[in-house]
Amino acid sequence: MNLLDAMNTSPDQFDRFKKQGYHIVGAHSAVKPCLWSGRAVKEKGSCYKSKFYGIDSHRCIQMTPYLGCNQACIYCWRPIEHPVEVPQHWDAPEVIVEGCINAQRSFMSGYGGIENIDKSIWQQSMEPRHAAISLAGEPTLYPDLGGLVEEFHRRGLTTFVVTNGTRPEVVENIRPTQLYMSLDAPDKNTYLELCFPRNPAMWEQILRSLKILDGHPSRTAIRITLVKGHNIKDVQGYARLIETAAPDFVEVKAYMHLGYSRKRLEREAMPQHEEILQFSAQLADELDYQLKDDVELSRVAMLSKRDTIGKIDWADK
């Protein structure tokens, strides 16, 4: 049976997403205005990706080609208890990209009426230059993710893709500007207890994806989300896995007690920033990476290879 065919459906799932501010694009994609896009237009701050990598928050589209996922991670703030209906027809990349750009312009148009803002920044926001393919769900479940990335690039946008690594054949073939892979467990047992994959064999798929990252033509990053009481202690276990991938960057981020995750986890499961920095420093020593930067508000730290520039020119794709 095909992976997607095995997924449950819920006809009212899209309504739930719409109530949470998502704009559904076509049959199965979605875009949502990012909190930091609005703040950046008003010159009240930017997201940590701006500090780490130079992304312009006010010109970044937060989107996904598919809201469904093949994992049910307990720390996810999304409504994983209500699986998304699998589309009978998949939209073409051109349709998705056009719909997302139009939706983003619609979101940002309202800021033009605000007094005392820099109109040149607002005008820039109407011409997005980056697509974060990371809003919700698992993007590698969309059958033409490579074509979607290429279409964004064709229109002058840079991209990063965030994947859980369970479809290594897709990881191997896509070429985003930066390829993120989540690694939220140092071993199989922790992965099964934390992420509830639809098939336990997905851990072996993740191990394959880690090997594929080493030498991948895109810039690469490993993302670790730490949840107290679940996956925060085995620094050496993470290091051994990350060594397989040899990514350009490693991000260590705290689980945040938001959204639907509040029904599954206590607030105490959210690490303090000091704990993130301690874990990151230990991991950097294990990997011989540098702890390059951190953002306390987002409880996130970034490690990089010693020969990798910490802040890159995102316009260079």
Provide the low-confidence segments as ranges.
Answer: 1-11
The first-level CATH class is given as Alpha Beta
Q: What is the fold named in CATH at topology level?
A: TIM Barrel
Count of helical regions: 11
Largest sheet: 10 strands, mixed
The CATH superfamily appears as: Aldolase class I
Number of domains: 1
Give a written overview of the molecule.
The chain is α/β, with parallel strands linked by helices. Helices cover 33% and strands 16% of the residues. The chain has helices at residues 13-19, 35-41, 48-53, 93-109, 119-125, 145-154, 168-173, 188-195, 202-213, 235-245, 273-287; strands at 23-25, 29-31, 60-64, 130-133, 158-163, 178-182, 219-226, 249-254, 290-295, 300-304. A 10-stranded mixed β-sheet has the order 1-2-3-4-5-6-7-8-10-9, sandwiched between helices. The longest helix has 17 residues, at 93-109.
Can I get a quick summary?
The chain is an alpha/beta fold and 317 residues long. Helices cover 33% and strands 16% of the residues. It has 11 helices and 10 strands.
Topology:
Layout: H1 13-19, E1 23-25, E2 29-31, H2 35-41, H3 48-53, E3 60-64, H4 93-109, H5 119-125, E4 130-133, H6 145-154, E5 158-163, H7 168-173, E6 178-182, H8 188-195, H9 202-213, E7 219-226, H10 235-245, E8 249-254, H11 273-287, E9 290-295, E10 300-304
Parallel strand pairs: 3-4, 4-5, 5-6, 6-7, 7-8
Antiparallel strand pairs: 1-2, 2-3, 8-10, 9-10
List the defining traits of the structure above:
11 helices; ten-stranded mixed beta sheet; 317 residues; single chain; alpha/beta; TIM Barrel; disordered N terminus
